[in-house]
Specification:
It is built from six helices and six strands, in the order H-H-E-H-E-H-E-E-E-E-H-H. By secondary structure, the chain is an alpha/beta fold. The strands form two sheets. A three-stranded parallel β-sheet has the order 1-2-3, covered by helices on one side. Strand 2, helix 4 and strand 3 form a beta-alpha-beta unit. The longest helix is centred in the middle third of the chain and has 11 residues.
């Protein structure tokens, strides 16, 4: 990956190779994986490669610019098993606003909460249960716990 976010994240230790390797080991060929908060695809790309053409990776990234970078990183890797959505996920279906950020500045962009805001771009927040109900039953599900830092609302609807 050659985009600004990846170049700034790697030296700061924010992208953990061991974390990615662990997630890839847990992913089984043919699995369906949902990643909420996919950012630019640091985990999505190796996971999609690990599950192969018979699997499906459903990636959610609410920030428009990061979603565009995610798509730009998926396309040249020929990952036709990935479906991306520029949406957030939460305990209730709603909309929220994503602040307008300067993505050329050296900031962290993955830690934006989907709480009520009055400024920025409007984005749809889907109910987590909707994600769970649309996954083919019988396939292993691997959910990314990194997003718990934003509160249990993301997973509240998805818990069984």
């Amino acid at each position: 990956m050659t985009d600004i976010s990846a170049r700034r994240s790697i030296p700061n230790g924010e992208i953990s190779r061991s974390e990615t390797e662990l997630l890839v080991q847990l992913a089984k060929r043919g699995s369906t994986i949902v990643e909420i908060g996919s950012n630019i695809g640091v985990h999505a790309i190796p996971l999609a490669q690990a599950i192969g053409d018979t699997g499906a990776l459903i990636a959610f990234e609410p920030q428009r610019i990061l979603h565009q970078m995610l798509c730009a990183n998926i396309a040249p890797n020929g990952l036709f098993n990935v479906r991306t959505h520029q949406k957030g996920a939460g305990a209730v279906k709603s909309t929220t606003r994503i602040p307008l950020l300067d993505y050329a500045a050296s900031e962290k962009f993955g830690g934006i909460s989907l709480s009520d805001r009055h400024d920025g771009e409007t984005v749809e927040v889907i109910w987590s249960v909707t994600v769970r109900q649309n996954i083919v039953t019988g396939h292993r599900r691997l959910l990314d716990p990194r997003n718990v830092r934003h509160g249990w609302g993301t997973w509240e609807g998805a818990m069984e």
